[in-house]
Amino acid sequence: MMRRSQIGLLSRLLLLLLVVELTPPAIPVPMRSSPQSLALLRARDQCGRELTAAQRLQLDRMQFEDAAHVRHYLHCFWSRLQLWLDETGFQAQRIVQSFGGERRLNVEQALPAINGCNAKTSSRGSGAQTVVDWCFRAFVCVLATPVGEWYKRHMSDVINGNA
């Protein structure tokens, strides 16, 4: 026969097992993305629907070759975010605001870089360049500035779920 102390111990063990069994496993809570990051991801997904897996991977790695699919993707991406207007190019002030303003970017460096690339790559008078080409050339120009380095880091964080 079992002693009372053994019965008490056995009942506590059974109770502990029930608690452990009934407790749902801890589910890691993903980091909440900012509305701006979600907008970037949505634009990326919507504009990348026509891309092959290899093309998508290339863009995710921030490799922007001069190819039709890259030019169209970039124009779609920036236009969808309403940060590119076909009449005036990149909306420098809106880009700075959308990407965190003075907290995240050196505004004194960003605004002249973006506006300078708009002006430098615009050849609206020649007619030979489409707005898609202009967007691509202006974007490549911005990538060559410190703003471009920040953009690459930020987009990598967004794609990897860290922003």
TrEMBL record:
<dbReference type="GO" id="GO:0007606">
    <property type="term" value="P:sensory perception of chemical stimulus"/>
</dbReference>
<dbReference type="GO" id="GO:0005549">
    <property type="term" value="F:odorant binding"/>
</dbReference>
<dbReference type="Pfam" id="PF01395">
    <property type="entry name" value="PBP_GOBP"/>
</dbReference>
<dbReference type="GO" id="GO:0005576">
    <property type="term" value="C:extracellular region"/>
</dbReference>
<dbReference type="InterPro" id="IPR036728">
    <property type="entry name" value="PBP_GOBP_sf"/>
</dbReference>
<feature type="signal peptide">
    <location>
        <begin position="1"/>
        <end position="28"/>
    </location>
</feature>
<dbReference type="InterPro" id="IPR006170">
    <property type="entry name" value="PBP/GOBP"/>
</dbReference>
<dbReference type="GO" id="GO:0005615">
    <property type="term" value="C:extracellular space"/>
</dbReference>
<dbReference type="GO" id="GO:0007608">
    <property type="term" value="P:sensory perception of smell"/>
</dbReference>
<protein>
    <submittedName>
        <fullName>Odorant-binding protein 8a</fullName>
    </submittedName>
</protein>
<keyword id="KW-0732">Signal</keyword>
